[in-house]
Amino acid sequence: MAVEILPTGAALGAEIRGLDLRRGLDPDSIEVVKQTWRDHLVLLIRDQDISDADLVRFSRYFGEPRLAPLGEARMKGRSRSPEGYPEVAIISNVTKDGIPIGSLGNGEAIWHTDMSYLEEPIMGAILYALEVPPSGGDTGFANMYLAYETLPDELRSKLEDSVCVHDHSLNSAGFLRRGYEEVTDVTQTPGARHPLFRTHPETGRHALFLGRRRNAYVPGLPVEESDALLDAVWAHATQSAFTWHHRWQVGDLLIWDNRAVLHRRDAFDNDDRRVMHRTQIEGDRPYYKRA
Ligand SMILES: [Fe+2]
Q: I need a surface site. Which of 181, 231, 267, 275 has the fewest CB within 10 A?
């Protein structure tokens, strides 16, 4: 299968043309896709018309899909996964009979890493657009290899051996998760601790590894010092020189490397419908191995 690779020209991201994901890919094409993903961190594949089965098959080229993180909804008999596909999460603002069909609503989702509040965050996620609003709802990505490589020395030395607590209490839309209390003292933030620098297990490159800014804390530091350090590192990491923003069209599929990019979503009008199906790929515990 002849594929064409078009880098975005921004700090990360590339489009791959020539793939039809309604069918399985041959091993050579799979390797091209994975190498392009390793090189560019975010892949865009446009003009697809795929089923959930196709989405899951494509996801398996990268690893084992993790079940959608919607246990509470599922337990209440209100699964936010399509029937028969518990590994597919519906990301949507649409409601049916007053009940949301998916998660995250229509608000802004600030810069974050998916599921980094867990000991083993996902390695990547795949998002497929079924319905998109006429404006808003863009997804942005930031290249954390570049953020690591360009860190000022003063920040680098402070972060080198530090870990950070990744808040589990709020979701990426900023809502309190069921069973959690609002964090008032960041030294008590619930969630996994990960090194602030991360070695990518496939490329061996180092990346800055941030989860979400709110309620983050660097254990061992006074709160004011931790806040100042994290504010500085977040300002560095999310500067526009490291980012690329995607304006969605129906049929677009994006896959991002959750080990080396931050992502965010713009808000959009809640009168407009946005329906995405997402899979998430199992990952392992972040580590940092000095060069
Ligand atoms: Fe996310």
A: 181
